[in-house]
Amino acid sequence: MNDGEGILIVIGCAVAFFLYVWISNSGYNKGLIDGKNQGFDAANSKFKNETQKLNDEIDTLKKIISGEIQSYEKYISSMIEKYIQKNDELEYEFNIKKQKLDLDYNNFVKNDKKRFESFIDALDKRYLEVIERANSEIAIKRELVKKVSKDIPDFLSSQCYELIELQWDYTISFLKNKKRPAIATAARMESLLKQKYKKEENLRKQYEFRACFYEELFPALADYLELPVSEAIGISKNLSSSEDKINKYVAPTEKMSDQERYQLALDRYKKRSKSNWEIGREFERYVGYKYSSDGYDVIMQGAIKKLEDMGRDVIAKKNNVTQIIQCKYWAADKTIHEKHIFQLYGTTLLYALNERQRLGVSLFDKNDLIGENSSVIPVFAVMGATLSETALKVADVLGVKIDTNYNSKHLNAYPMIKCNKSSGIYHLPFDQQYDTTIINYDSGDFYAKTIIEAESAGFRRAWRWNGS
After folding, report:
1. How would you classify the pairing of strands 425-427 and 460-461?
2. pLDDT digits (tens, 9 = 90+) for 40-71
3. CA–CA gap between residue 93 and residue 101 (Å, rounded)
4. DSSP string, 284-337
5. Where residue 151 falls among pLDDT bands split at 50, 70, 90?
6. What is the DSSP letter of 383?
7. CA–CA distance, 81 with 369 (Å, rounded to integer)
């Protein structure tokens, strides 16, 4: 046997061995595979059962969750509906309250604005009043420094006496309260002070009686004594001032024509608040207007002469007859006594005597000096106040005519503008030459009611020199 044959034998044996092994293992593997297949089928069946069970549980859970979701959705929908409804209700309530608040706010703002504006206006007015009063008082005090010794001695004397008394009180107090009190000296000074006070009081009484005596002699003084000091000084300044009074009633900043400015000043002059003294003067002017309208030549003696008018407020002349008129516009609760009648009678008698002397007529002429049957007639023009019974009897006996035919409603209603034909000028009641201008209707003079009426008739207001 050669080597090749040995190799073939070996290969043949190996192949046979492998075939044997393979055939032997094929039956084992089949059984093993069948066993495995059976196990796999059982596992697969169990898996399917478990899967089915899980699917059933999932379906159950889905149903439960679906029910919960539907229930929750219903709850959410219900809550949304309630929210929307509540929101609508709140919005409606808010709008109602907002409207009410807006209305209340507008009313508050409107009313409060009015109250605030009224309050501010009142403050402004009060401020202006305080400033005006302060300026007035300052001006008065400055004037007092210049005139106090001449115009108001009562004030000066009282102030001096109070100063002296204060000095004495201080000295007595010092003597009583110093470290070593001088009681006896203080007592002596108190005694001297009482003596001095008694002496001063006696002197004051003498002056008081003297003033009463002068008032009895010149009753017209009572009209001026009743004036407050501030008013008296103001009147004195107004009477002596040459400043154009237009500026008192119309501010230079008020832009308008001269004609409108003059008319506005006249209107405001009529409506102004008047003192008792000014009311009395207005009554005198109204009496003068009435007599001028009746054809008299009127002299405003009281306005021109002031304290030197001798009780002759208005002198009216016509057809050689002169009426001496005293005007009294007092409060209704006041009474005019006989002393005023006596004064008017006395001043009229003096006027008649002077006229006779001026004309060269004998003082003992058989004709009556004064009275209704003479050329000089005393007239007592009165409005408001009443005359005492004695005053009426005295007037009747002395031939004094009592004229009460006047109405306060006419004081601001009559034509006030004096138009003088000879000069071609008209005068307003606050102009400097108003009271000195005599109106004579026969000469073409007249009273106008408005500036337009005066200027349409060809008159102009007087040009004023302003110092430039």
Report:
1. parallel
2. 677 778 777 878 888 888 888 878 887 878 88
3. 12
4. HHHHHHHHHHTT-EEE-HHHHHGGGGTT--EEEEETTEEEEEEEEE--TT-EE-
5. very low
6. E
7. 116
